[in-house]
Amino acid sequence: MSSARIFSLFIIFIFFLALPAQAKDMILKEPPQSLSKYYPPESKEPKWIQQMHKMSTHFGGVFVNLKEKDFENVDKHADKLVEEYKKTSEMVPEWEEYFDIKAAEAFAAAAKTHDMAKAGKASGGLGKTCGKCHAEQEVAVWTRFHWPSFRKIKVTDPISEKEMGFDDYMSQVSSSFKGVTVNFGEGQYDRSAKALKTFKSQFMELKSTCSKCHTTDDVKRFYVGEDADTAFAGLAKELNAEKPNPGKFWKNIGLLGKTGCKHCHLTHRTYSFIRETWEQK
């Protein structure tokens, strides 16, 4: 088999390792507490993910340099991979079973033969250890350490001027939204218009709430940007008309729901549900 063919197979192997685990392999439980010391706020740097990048770089470096016939750097990457792999295996005692030092050493030895086929074959044993850990822990780790806990977010309701938890605030927003749609469906346009003012005020307050995490200008208004402005203007126009147009009203409701509520929920809500389950223990 040509070296180019083997290298291509290696790239495919790495690609599939990065894909989400199959449903039958997926496990989702809260990561061990010992992992917390490798992430903020206990650690200034996300040391665990940095270790993952180090190992990935050295693993990939072996094959990149084998293809380029830079055997000096092949050997350097092979040795560094074993060094970082051993270091990582000692960081989280509860995950000791995910590591196979002999597999890492066997891969390094195969890489040092400078034979692409032997290195490719030996990578399989090492890849299984990485793949098993990713299948059982990666989603949980990303949920726990890379997504915020919405329970820690406080919002000041612009209507009551009271500070409340994020979940309670979203319930208020949902209630105001129903006031708009239910009253419109009943033909109570004046009540719907009144509820719209409350709903818009609460909904647009999320600009300041979202900006606590979404700090750049292009992201601050991702869920509450031009589409929301357009939808609210369209809703107000219909409710102030002598004879509101139901088609235009519901079109703007759909625009607001799809570009604002739905997009936010698709991005954040699953992780929020998982964290809430863990925090209720």
What would you report as the Rg, rounded to the nearest angstrom?
26 Å
Helix content: 55-70%
Summarize model confidence as the mean pLDDT: 87
Task: Please report the distance between the alpha carbons of the first and last residues.
Answer: 54 Å
Shape: elongated
Total number of beta strands: 2
> How many strands, which pairing sense, and closed or not: the largest β-sheet?
2 strands, antiparallel
Elements, N to C (H/E) = HHHHHEEHHHHHH
Q: Structural class from helices and strands?
A: mainly alpha
Give the helix tally. Answer: 11
Point out poorly predicted stretches: 9-23
Strand order, largest beta sheet: 1-2
Which percent band covers the strand fraction?
Answer: under 5%
Assembly status: single chain
The number of distinct structural domains comes to 2
Secondary structure elements and pairings:
Elements: H1 3-18, H2 47-67, H3 71-89, H4 101-111, H5 116-146, E1 154-156, E2 163-165, H6 166-185, H7 189-204, H8 206-210, H9 217-220, H10 226-239, H11 246-279
Antiparallel strand pairs: 1-2
Helix pairs in contact: 1-5, 2-3, 3-4, 4-5, 6-7, 7-10, 10-11
Mind explaining what this structure looks like?
The chain folds into two domains: 3-146; 150-279. The chain is 68% helix and 2% strand. The chain is an all-alpha fold. It has a two-stranded antiparallel ribbon. The N and C termini lie far apart (54 Å). It has helices at 3-18, 47-67, 71-89, 101-111, 116-146, 166-185, 189-204, 206-210, 217-220, 226-239, 246-279; strands at 154-156, 163-165.
